[in-house]
Amino acid sequence: MDELDVTQLAEERPAAGEEADLKAILEAIVYVTDEPLSAQQISAALGHPLDKVKKLLDELVEEYAKPEHGLTIREVAGGYKMATKAEHHEAVRAFVKKLTPPLKLSLAALETLAVIAYKQPVTAPEIMEIRGVQGAGVLKTLLDRKLIAEGGRKNVVGKPILYKTTKEFLVQFGLKSVTELPTLKEFEELARMEIAEPEISPEQGTLPEVEPAAEETATEPAAAEATEEAKPEAPPENA
């Protein structure tokens, strides 16, 4: 009986060591890859059974969920990706801002990206109709950053290009799919929670003028009416 127990232990140790090695390899792979990798991709590349790879990945997800870790491993866009935890974002963001200038999307780009995300596939004229402005330059910016891509052409007169969001969009916003986007009801609740900006008194000075974005143009017909209203009335003629 003692000999059997010793034999079993000798067989289990190499197996446990191999599993630990594979788990460490999976952790390194998730860390070094820029794009999320699915369990199927990793299993095929390493030549290990899918159920074993999935089990070890789930263990890594659980382990990194512990509070002593500043990083997390989670499923994003159909694959596994390592990132900083949400509760540490402000501290990390403040640190990064001191290193390099922050890279941000303009308000026009965010608006256009939101329209595409919710209405995709959508054409440039349809985007312009929703936003009320022309934004060819904005589309180019989003294409260059690989947040959107061309998704064919619409079967109407002129066959305009259709635009859709990309996998990079899901990665940047930490989404598994576009179904995780907030609903319009959630947006309305956020709008009600917004705090109005305080008015600036004459002693505080005036706000600086904001130049219109070079990448889009808009028409303001109300400006002409405002000019007419601003004209002073002619003085009455003497009787």
Protein described:
The protein is 51% helix and 10% strand. The protein has 239 residues and is mainly alpha-helical. The chain has 2 domains: 7-88, Orthogonal Bundle (Arc Repressor Mutant, subunit A), CATH 1.10.10.10; 107-193, Arc Repressor Mutant, subunit A (Orthogonal Bundle). Helix 2 crosses helix 3 and helix 5 packs across helix 7 (136-144). The protein is globular. The termini are far apart.
Radius of gyration: 28 Å
- Tell me which CATH architecture of the largest domain applies here: Orthogonal Bundle
The strand count comes to 5
Instruction: Provide the structure class.
Output: mainly alpha
Shape: globular
Oligomeric organization of the protein chains: single chain
What sequence of helices (H) and strands (E) makes up the elements? Answer: HHHEEHHEHHEEHHH
Task: Kindly report the average pLDDT value.
Answer: 77
Strand order of the largest sheet: 3-5-4
Task: Kindly report the name of the CATH homologous superfamily of the largest domain.
Answer: Winged helix-like DNA-binding domain superfamily/Winged helix DNA-binding domain
Q: Helical percent range?
A: 40-55%
| Biggest sheet features | 3 strands, antiparallel
Strand content: 5-15%
